[in-house]
User: Fold this.
Amino acid sequence: MTAKEAIERLNDLELKEFAYGHAMGILSYDDETVAPKGSRIPRGKTMGVLSELSYKLSTGDEARAVLDGLMEHYDELSEEDKRRADLREKKMRELRAIPVEEYVAYSELLNDASNVWREAKNASDYKLFEPYLGKIIETQKRFAGLVRPDMDPYDYCLDQYEEGLTKEKCESFFGALRARIVPLLEKIKAVGPVDTSFLSTPFPVSAQRELTAKLMEIQRLPRDNCIVGEVEHPFTTGFSKHDVRITTHYFEDNFLSSMYSVIHEGGHALYDLHSDDRFCFTSLEGGVSMGVHESQSRFYENIIGRSREFVGLVYPDLIRLCPKLAAHSVEELWRAANAACPSLIRTEADELTYPLHIMVRYEMEKAMIEGEAKTSELPEMWNALYKEYLGIDVPDDKSGILQDSHWSGGGIGYFPSYALGSAYGAQLLHKMREDFDVAEAVRQNELVKVNHWLEDKIWKYGSLYKPAELMEKAFGGPFDPTFYTDYLERKFTEVYGL
Amino acid sequence: MTAKEAIERLNDLELKEFAYGHAMGILSYDDETVAPKGSRIPRGKTMGVLSELSYKLSTGDEARAVLDGLMEHYDELSEEDKRRADLREKKMRELRAIPVEEYVAYSELLNDASNVWREAKNASDYKLFEPYLGKIIETQKRFAGLVRPDMDPYDYCLDQYEEGLTKEKCESFFGALRARIVPLLEKIKAVGPVDTSFLSTPFPVSAQRELTAKLMEIQRLPRDNCIVGEVEHPFTTGFSKHDVRITTHYFEDNFLSSMYSVIHEGGHALYDLHSDDRFCFTSLEGGVSMGVHESQSRFYENIIGRSREFVGLVYPDLIRLCPKLAAHSVEELWRAANAACPSLIRTEADELTYPLHIMVRYEMEKAMIEGEAKTSELPEMWNALYKEYLGIDVPDDKSGILQDSHWSGGGIGYFPSYALGSAYGAQLLHKMREDFDVAEAVRQNELVKVNHWLEDKIWKYGSLYKPAELMEKAFGGPFDPTFYTDYLERKFTEVYGL
Assistant:
């Protein structure tokens, strides 16, 4: 096989992998947005078949021949084809370590677990979900042992979402955050709360849908390639740069919830929408890791979206769509949107206490994977951690351990990406400011400047570089969480007039 | 291979075929209901890959071995497994006659054609769609020649949707219909129109959505297994008996449009929802042909839904949801819902003129397949046929040749099923009345009786029998279109007091 042939056969293989992933992705999107309850049975069957076929495709004779061909000509390959070869070797190693029956059974388990989690959350009854979570944890541990027997199992989980992330790095990172956030929260407590009561002003859902359209226009999300679905728990799914779906959930008495979820998911979407064209339908299309993905979404949500300039920018639309809000100034709204106060629900948490929610989940996941807690003890542990980290009592499973969908989808090791992404975002802001006046661009409704900068530094590269490498290129130096803690301190000092 | 092994391997093969069909079906449903415009590119790629893989699965070594095994033990097989073996042999013969590249290219062509048709319809510009229609016609002719060189090409097209239907049967059937419908329409013209002006009373879309829910309750459509989507051109898609999707389109000034489309699609859905459990995920699950399918949908829409008793049954909800309608009696509404008047749009046509719309399409399809008309001449031919059969002038392509989606999806030969289905329905009504008082059951909101009868005679059999065989069993004798023409004459004589 020549190098050229190897690449052609690689293109064909990756296109087939894309097709399986796309089909399974659409089945999941349909499930989350509209599918009737009974669809669980046929979807389980189809997911089982497709994941088996997809597994066989990625581990079969042709995949092996392609990998051999790539390795034989490795030195002749372009930078991007080298990366594709590396990713393929990694994928092959991981998949071949897991027996096909177990791989398929896990895919079926996750389909069931997602449905049961939803029922359990509605009933606020962890007991319903417990056996599924137990099996997910066992499977994750088993897969970690099979794929990377040399690696700590939780490090393996982290690495799935952020290549190279480890417990050790998390401990040091979270330690640095706690050391600055906890005293800052104490100071805020001492000066007393800002007024947030008017945030529950009734804002009709139809008007919120209009606001969504306006926000997408401000973020420059192309409607021909990006739609909005309505779901219980918002997420983004990018099938390709041509078709990315964001989702939201409207609450009449909490318009900021949907507003910031749209901006957050919009950040994810922009990243997926701007991979370089030459990566289409290859393993290099789309975001490289969850940490980098969350850096884009949380940058948009918090650093841009919760800035005074952004609040000022959307203010005329807010008071047009909900005239009662006109009784409050931009300044009041900005402060209210940044009120820092320990609360129960991660997705509704403010920017400052948010990392504490992540630390709770990080501790939970470590305990799950390291077998330090029985599944029956997990709710108790969750509640104790909320008391310790956030000082609040959890009244029930629905607003406690069952609040997030991640674990039901097998996403153990995902959560730390959110905090890491926030920190990446703060360092990106620092760097972006060296190039142009970010606040002024927001004020002038010129987010196109922000988008161009991010496209140039991050988005266009797709998965070409490893996450840490990509970020270091963008930062022009190593990652340093001090940019994040400095940013938080500066911002909340201003919000609370400390 | 033992008979038992052959059946086990057949089950596995059919489950995989189900999975591909399900995945492609969800991609199409997503396309029709929510997908952004740009999704066309990745969907085209994925459809191409999946249809190629699915083709290979159904024609490959394993499929051949399974078929050999089945044929070797044919005499030992149960009635249903014999039918599965026959269907498999037919499928294998058809697929193997078509080269894989052509099969895949056609699937990609149809993906593009559907999108272009939508654009062309919006722009009311047939020229945009013409090259796609031309390629579809050429491909259909070519496939007909490859698969059944012994058969008339248009007979082959008809047979795809109604096994055993031929041009000869169509000519005789349509001849019988024209002979009775045309004079009946003349008589109706002579007595003058019924009042239909109040049917455009504004009926808010949100209230129509409530009406849909009520209709689904009356039809006993289980919400856990059946949802309603909103689309341009309503259709039903059944993924399995656990998950069937109906769709509708709401017009504020024409509430009957959505009302009857929901009842129509509900009839399709009920059929798909009631295959016997043992057929799940096999080739016997779901309706056997489009003719039988349309017999269920058009039975529900017209024979049940446009009966005086049904109009009386929904009347209280109609005037609750749209109080202005209370100025009109049940009798007036029933007459208006049955007003017979030549019109432009098939899906909006009344029960009496409807078959004339089908005859136009039948003549068009014959001319397309038999090469009697150039694609550039088709709009002219369409317009001339509307003048001849319905006596009306077609103002533009949008309400002319571009009105239906069928041809853009490759559905040449489908339309005659609608008329055949209507005739099947009238003969079913005749038979049903021997068993119970159908009008009284409708009056008492006991459609469950109708459903049980249809389930017992039709639905539960899935695809176990050939369509003509199934219908003859249900009728207790041969098909006879006189039941249909008698039904039409009786009904319209009453509506118009002839």
